[in-house]
Amino acid sequence: MRFSITTLGCKVNAYESRYYARKLEELGFEEADQDVDVCIINTCTVTNTAAAKSRQMIHRARKHNPRARIVVVGCYAQTAEEEEKQKLQADLIIGARHKNELAARVQEMLQDDRSRDLTSHEEGAGFESMPIARFEGRHRAFLKVQDGCNQFCSYCAIPFARGRERSISMPEALTLVQELEAAGHREIVLTGIHTGRWQGENGEDLAALLREMLQVTRDVTFRISSIEITEVTDDLIRLLATEPRMMPHLHIPVQSGSDAVLERMNRPYTVAEFEERLEAIRAAVPDISVSTDVICGFVRETDEEFEEMMATLRRMRFSFLHVFPYSERKGTKASRMGPAVNGTIQKERAARLLALSRELRMQDMARFDEETVLVEQEENGVYTGYTRQYHPVKIHSDHPLEGRITGKLQLSQDGYIMEV
Predict the structure, then answer these.
(1) Are 418 and 410 in contact (CB under 8 A)?
(2) Which uninterrupted H or E stretch holds 341?
(3) What is the pLDDT of residues 100-129, one digit of tens each?
(4) For residue 369, which of 87, 222, 286, 319 sits 20 to 30 Å off, Cα-Cα?
(5) CATH 3.30.1490.190 matches 2-118
(6) With a threshold of 0.70, does the pTM exceed it?
(7) Residue 276: left (phi > 0), alpha (psi -120 to 50), or beta?
(8) Region 126-247: CATH code
(9) Looking at 346-414, which runs of residues are DSSP E strands?
(10) Hey, CA dihedral for 7, 10, 15, 16, is it positive or negative?
């Protein structure tokens, strides 16, 4: 049996897709690009565009693979209304729960002709462990330690799609990082919907989990995929400042640089509070780089509020920006606040933010003239990887390179060039 997986959305979705592939391969399935028996579409619903693209990928899969069974999984699968789900004509639909059962459910599906819809939330259900023992290339591995969200930002449907917060147990997490290091991985990225809200059975926080992970491993380094500013504790800052195996990069979503917009978004901080914490992080970890997410064209965002955001982002000196034009999601509080900013204006604002991101990236990279890089890929004698601060690097070498390389950096428009 052959299968394909199409993945939309975030890094957590990408992680989960790799898990599905591994479990299917263990059952004897083969991943392929065409002539497949099962098409899996791992969906996203964070924006209207993402939901529409999810539907498009589902219909495309059926068109190009008319004899294949269609499996729809993920956030859009969970939030789609009954009429929408009927139109998808999927053979198997899995939402926020039962994702770790996908491979077994696919096997069941192929044995009969019944379609199944597994999108009910189960109150009190725990964390669904989805361990991946080995990643391609053996350089960077990912470990999902948390799922769900309790924050309910006014624009976001993720709490409805993924359910309430839940965490992997500390014993299982420690076992998994040891296995990933034993498999040859050099770096482990902790990921989740709210990674910073990982919580142990006895109330331990993310910093405590990382300390234990550092204790049970020898050489592997650690990154945090994304974390909220309110979750960057003093203990986590101390860990970043004192532990050389903690990479000096954080991705902290700010979403807006205007207090009025942040209030409409229901974000749990003001610009001043965010900035104060950011400066505390930088004072303790001078070589850290901090990147962020921003939303432009939010409901009723005025020209003055946008200009305020531009000034704030420039002042905060982020290393780069992920830019998202606002997209209304039905059922969220923001969808009842009024119309979004005109699409043309949104595009203009997004373009300015992307230009600012390029400017900020170059400014941050200019701080470093020597760094350590984890080499990840090679093509025609050109090796690529990322610095500890998560800046891209190219290395030209006539001899094989692997692992971590330290060298001089030359700044270029698309990253660094390293001399070895």
Answers:
(1) yes
(2) none
(3) 899 999 999 988 766 777 776 554 467 888
(4) 222
(5) no
(6) yes
(7) alpha
(8) 3.30.750.210
(9) 370-379, 382-387, 392-396, 404-412
(10) negative
What's the pLDDT score for residue 157? 87
Place of tokens 């899969």: 61
Count of CB atoms situated within 10 Å of the CB of 394: 16
* Residue 135, token pair as written in the block: 């990643």
* Topology agreement, domain 2-118 and domain 126-247: no
Alpha-carbon Rg for the chain in angstroms = 22
Q: What is the pLDDT of residue 96?
A: 77
71 alpha-carbon distance from chain centroid:
22
Q: Strands, E, within 300-414: which ranges?
A: 321-325, 370-379, 382-387, 392-396, 404-412
CA 360 to chain centre: 21
Please say whether the dihedral angle defined by the alpha carbons of residues 100, 102, 107 and 111, taken in this order, is positive or negative. positive
What is the structure's pLDDT at 328?
85
Alpha helical stretches, state H, 224-302: 234-242, 259-265, 271-284
**What DSSP letter does each residue of 113-151 carry, written as one string?**
---EEE----TT--------S--GGGSEEEEE-EE----
Residues 6+ apart with CB under 8 A from 287: 248, 367, 368, 388, 389
List the domain boundaries for the chain. Answer: 2-118, 126-247, 370-419
Determine the Cα–Cα distance for residues 205 and 199; give it in Å rounded to an integer.
5
In contact, 128 and 100? CB cutoff 8 Å = yes
Residues in the chain predicted with pLDDT less than 70, given as ranges, are: 113-114, 120-125, 137-138
Smallest CA-to-CA distance from 134 within 101, 191, 181, 99 is with 181
